[in-house]
Specification:
This protein has 309 residues and is mainly α. It contains twelve helices and four strands. The chain has one domain: NCX, central ion-binding region (A middle domain of Talin 1, Up-down Bundle), CATH 1.20.1420.30. Strands 1-4 form a two-stranded antiparallel sheet. Strands 2-3 form a two-stranded antiparallel ribbon.
Length: 309
C-alpha cells in the first residue's frame, strides 16, 4: 500500500511542479502586459510562482487540519532552498555575484521571519492573528526588497504575445492544477506517515520540502545557464522569504493550527542561525562559487542530526 501512496506523491508533485511552471509563464506574460517593471516580474512574480506548490500544500494541509504538514513543509522548503538548491547552482552555472546590496536585506528578513515563527509556534498553536501577522510581514518585506534592492538588469523571462483573456484563463487553470496535485500529494504523505508511524513534521521537512522546492531548482538552473545569475539568487532568497512568512502564515489564517512546537522552534531557530551565517559569508565573499556551494550542501546535511536527535 505504501508503494501506491508513494506513486500518488510522485504524480501529485509532478502535476503541481509542471503546472506551477506554466503558471509562472502565464503570470509573467500578464505582468508584462500591465507594464510592471522587470524587477517585479523576476523577484516577486517568479518567486511566488515557484512557491505555488508550497502555498497550495499549506492551504490543503490547514483545511485537513494537519498543522505539522503545513509548518514542516514551509520551514523545510526555506532550508532546502537556502542550502541544497543554492548550493547546487555554482556547480551548474559557475561563480555568481552575491554582494551585500543583493542579499543582506532579504537574508535579514528571512531570519526575522523564522524567529517570529518560532515565537508564534512555541505554544504548540498558530492562530489566525499570528498567521495574519506573518503574511503582513511578507507584504512589508516585499515592498522593502523592491524599493531598496539594486536596479534589475534585463528581464530573465521574455513575455510572449498572448491575449490578456487567454493569459488569465491560463493562470487560473494552472493554479487549479497546482492545487489538485498538491492535494493528492498531501493526502498520500499523511497516509505514509500514519503507516510508518513517522512524525508528520519530519516527513514534511525532509521529504515533501524537496518535492515542493523542485520548481525553484528547475527555474534557477535554467536561469543560471542563460546567464541570469542575479535572477536565480533573487528567486531563492525571495522564495525562502515567502516560505518563512506567507506560507507559514496562510494555513492558520484559514484554520488555527495545532503544531509540534518543539520541532517547529528547533527547526526555525536552527534555520535562522544558518541563514544568518550563509548570508554573512556570501556577502563578505561577494561571490558564490563551488567552495561556498559545498559549505551550503554540508549545512543542509547538518539538519538531519539537528532535528532527528
Amino acid at each position: 500500500m505504501i508503494v501506491v501512496w508513494l506513486a500518488v506523491v510522485v504524480v501529485g508533485l509532478a502535476v503541481a511542479i509542471v503546472a506551477s511552471g506554466r503558471a509562472v509563464a502565464y503570470a509573467s506574460d500578464l505582468a508584462f502586459s500591465f507594464n510592471l517593471p522587470p524587477f517585479v516580474v523576476g523577484a516577486i512574480v517568479v518567486a511566488i510562482g515557484t512557491d505555488l506548490p508550497e502555498i497550495a500544500n499549506a492551504i490543503v494541509s490547514a483545511i485537513s487540519e494537519y498543522g505539522d504538514m503545513a509548518t514542516g513543509t514551509a520551514l523545510g522548503s526555506t532550508i532546502t532552498q537556502m542550502t541544497l538548491v543554492l548550493g547546487i547552482l555554482p556547480f551548474v552555472g559557475g561563480t555568481m555575484a552575491s554582494g551585500p546590496r543583493r542579499i543582506v536585506l532579504p537574508g535579514a528578513l528571512i531570519v526575522i521571519g523564522l524567529l517570529v515563527g518560532a515565537v508564534f509556534g512555541a505554544d504548540d498553536t498558530l492562530s489566525r492573528v499570528e498567521g495574519l501577522a506573518l503574511i503582513l510581514f511578507w507584504l512589508i518585506s516585499a515592498v522593502l526588497v523592491y524599493r531598496l534592492a539594486p536596479p534589475a538588469g534585463a528581464p530573465a523571462m521574455v513575455a510572449s504575445e498572448r491575449h490578456t483573456g487567454r493569459t488569465l484563463t491560463g493562470v487560473m487553470v494552472s493554479l487549479a492544477l497546482v492545487g489538485a496535485g498538491a492535494t493528492a500529494a498531501v493526502t498520500a504523505f499523511i497516509e505514509i506517515a500514519e503507516t510508518l508511524d513517522v512524525p508528520l513534521f519530519l516527513l514534511s521537512f525532509f521529504v515533501a520540502s524537496i518535492g515542493t522546492s523542485l520548481p525553484e531548482l528547475v527555474v534557477d538552473v535554467v536561469a543560471v545557464r542563460r546567464g541570469e545569475k542575479d535572477m536565480a539568487i533573487g528567486d531563492i532568497f525571495g522564495s525562502s522569504l515567502i516560505d518563512a512568512t506567507l506560507v507559514l502564515g496562510i494555513g492558520p489564517v484559514i484554520v488555527p493550527l495545532a503544531v509540534d512546537g518543539s520541532l517547529l522552534v528547533r527547526s526555525a531557530l536552527a534555520g535562522s542561525v544558518m541563514v544568518a551565517a550563509l548570508t554573512f559569508v556570501l556577502a563578505r565573499r561577494r561571490h558564490h562559487d563551488r567552495l561556498s556551494g559545498v559549505m551550503l550542501l554540508l549545512a543542509y546535511a547538518a539538519f538531519y542530526p539537528v532535528l532527528l536527535s
